[in-house]
């Protein structure tokens, strides 16, 4: 059920087990490539990762318009019909995305995601790419 580069599968499972209602967790690079996933199918995780690249860019652009902001996106929460989508910065050029149903409690989710990022954020870092190659 878990596909990833690196060995943090148990941490993603721990997040899923700790917050009721999680359907899928995706760790992605800033350019929308899936690094790891828990739950869901690989194609769905790839689509989520690709969509997140645009969303984090949009959120950063909006953040830049707030006086005093450094223009970086920290967390985005979207309420959708039947659930929630969470996207959190997880290290340089890396993000943590979670899809959950309405059972998931937003405060618990954001706290657990933040705890996970603090514990392994440096391991979630994705190096920049040039012409499709890791630099």
TrEMBL record:
<dbReference type="Pfam" id="PF03259">
    <property type="entry name" value="Robl_LC7"/>
</dbReference>
<protein>
    <submittedName>
        <fullName>Dynein regulation protein LC7</fullName>
    </submittedName>
</protein>
<dbReference type="InterPro" id="IPR004942">
    <property type="entry name" value="Roadblock/LAMTOR2_dom"/>
</dbReference>
<feature type="domain" description="Roadblock/LAMTOR2">
    <location>
        <begin position="9"/>
        <end position="100"/>
    </location>
</feature>
<dbReference type="InterPro" id="IPR053141">
    <property type="entry name" value="Mycobact_SerProt_Inhib_Rv3364c"/>
</dbReference>
């Amino acid at each position: 059920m878990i596909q990833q580069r690196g060995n943090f599968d148990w941490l993603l499972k721990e997040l899923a087990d700790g917050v009721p209602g999680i359907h899928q967790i995706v760790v992605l690079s800033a350019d929308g490539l899936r690094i790891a996933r828990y739950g869901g199918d690989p194609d769905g995780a790839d689509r989520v990762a690709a969509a997140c690249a645009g969303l984090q860019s949009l959120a950063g652009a909006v953040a830049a318009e707030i006086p005093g902001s450094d223009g970086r996106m920290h967390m985005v929460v979207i309420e959708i019909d039947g659930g929630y989508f969470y996207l959190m910065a997880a290290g340089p050029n890396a993000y943590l995305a979670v899809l959950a149903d309405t059972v998931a409690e937003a405060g618990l989710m954001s706290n657990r995601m933040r705890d996970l990022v603090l514990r392994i954020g440096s391991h979630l870092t994705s190096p920049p790419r040039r012409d499709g190659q890791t630099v």
